[in-house]
Write a structure and sequence with these properties.
Elements lengths: L2 H46 L3 E2 L13 E9 L4 E9 L2 E12 L5 E9 L16 E8 L12 E4 L2 E4 L4 H8 L9 E4 L20 H31 L2
Helix pairs in contact: 1-3
């Protein structure tokens, strides 16, 4: 292979690698911006905490927004929904959800908090709540589904075990006659009901600073490939 052809092939490979690393860095940068905006919006809502009606959970125009909401309703008699693979303080467990029917508006998922799993992965028993109950908390989009592989939920004993929170699949599998509201209510930790919980918005996922760190690493790799290609090119040119 001639020197010129080797140079062309090398630069094509280098430019492809640079493009790949730069795009990965840009993606990480965009995720950092998106997550920081999400945290800032939620922080403003929680600082104010002016309650809005629970029916706002069904507003599709605000499906990706955050609102502090309060209202009265009843928990549906259907079995609890347990989101698998949820870490808390280094312990494995599940996040507990139940369907709640507010006095006005669509039925919605309520995040009741986290429960540990035993070593044999026996699912915890989750009793229901009877009668009218007043709830308050933060309306949020459901947790990101990530790669949607396999069924979203399956019946196990007296509960539904979920691999992801897929609202359409939940409504269908549990036999709801109407869709679920597009947002989930994360209960105020001050309420004396439910399980271990907080209003942390990024559990089991990367915060903005880590996305920025990964972006910097990808950009550094792109710069390193460019520098290496330039060094090798000019070294060849200096040879007699």
């Amino acid at each position: 292979m001639s020197r010129r052809r080797t140079l062309v092939v090398g630069w094509v490979a280098a430019l492809l690698a640079i493009a790949l690393f730069a795009n990965l860095g840009l993606w990480q940068s965009r995720r950092a911006v998106e997550k920081q905006a999400m945290l800032d919006a939620a922080a403003a809502v929680m600082a104010d905490r002016t309650p809005r009606p629970l029916s706002l959970a069904g507003d599709t125009a605000r499906a990706r927004q955050y609102d502090w909401a309060a209202g009265i309703g009843t928990f549906d008699a259907r079995d609890a929904l347990l989101l698998d693979n949820q870490q808390r303080n280094g312990r494995a467990g599940v996040r507990v959800y139940r369907i709640f029917v507010p006095a006005r508006g669509l039925p919605m998922l309520v995040d009741l908090g986290w429960l540990p799993l035993s070593g044999d992965r026996t699912l915890p028993q989750v009793p229901n709540f009877d009668g009218a109950i007043a709830l308050r908390g933060l309306l949020v989009p459901p947790p990101s589904t990530g790669l949607a592989l396999g069924p979203a939920l399956a019946k196990q004993g007296d509960a539904w075990l979920m691999t992801r929170v897929d609202l359409a699949a939940i409504a269908k599998q549990t036999g709801l006659s109407v869709p679920l509201a597009p947002r989930v209510l994360r209960l105020d930790p001050a309420l004396r009901m439910g399980y271990e919980r907080d209003l942390e918005l990024l559990p089991n996922t990367l915060p903005p600073d880590q996305h920025r760190g990964y972006a910097l690493q990808w950009f550094a790799l792109a710069a390193a490939v460019l520098a290496t290609a330039l060094i090798l090119t000019f070294r060849r040119r200096r040879r007699p």
